[in-house]
Amino acid sequence: MSFIVAIDGPAGSGKGTITKLVGEELDLVTFDTGAMYRAITYYMLQNNIDLTGKDKIEKMLKEIDIKLEFENRVQTLYLNSQKLVTELRTKEVNELVSQVSHIPEVRVAMVDLQRKLAEGKNVIMEGRDIGTNVFPNADVKIYLDASAEERANRRLKQNLENNITNISYEEILENIKFRDHNDKTSDIAPLKQADDAIYLDSSDLTIEQVKDKIVEIAKAKMK
User: According to the CATH classification, is domain 4-215 in 3.10.450.60?
Assistant: First the structure.
């Protein structure tokens, strides 16, 4: 029997950071599902696979191998044995990942992988449709939000920490607004708050405050 915490929300809302902190405090395995879609996007860019090339996409999904390794519950992603870190956050990947995540074949393959990876584990998983699609029966569901401007500031800071300096705040904000529209209007697993999810706006909260709120909610469910 596993215990599942699902955290959904728009790009840059702090899902990745919060998921790691909550996972550490509650001893949960941490999954960043967005990294999986970024890995697919990176591969498509490297191999010049067009978004509309259905045959090539289906062939790609049969050939690629995504593995997640965890050290102290922190995720490291390997694509065909290549460790990907900064490659997942390039400008090119940022601009394309939302569109790649809307490809039905990609979505089906990644959801299947996410479910398999979580089998028999106590996990905290973040993404766009974890509580609505991947794990609709999750024990805890959180919809984490923040203003577009605050999310752009956070993403800029994250990029600078990873030595990614060729993307301006204005470009990040424009990309976030584009992704919001794309994700919320998608025909495939759109971004939305699950009916039984708890809404949490982190715009004016510290990371520690958000983490403490979610830990408190999860601990109440664990009793």
Answer: no
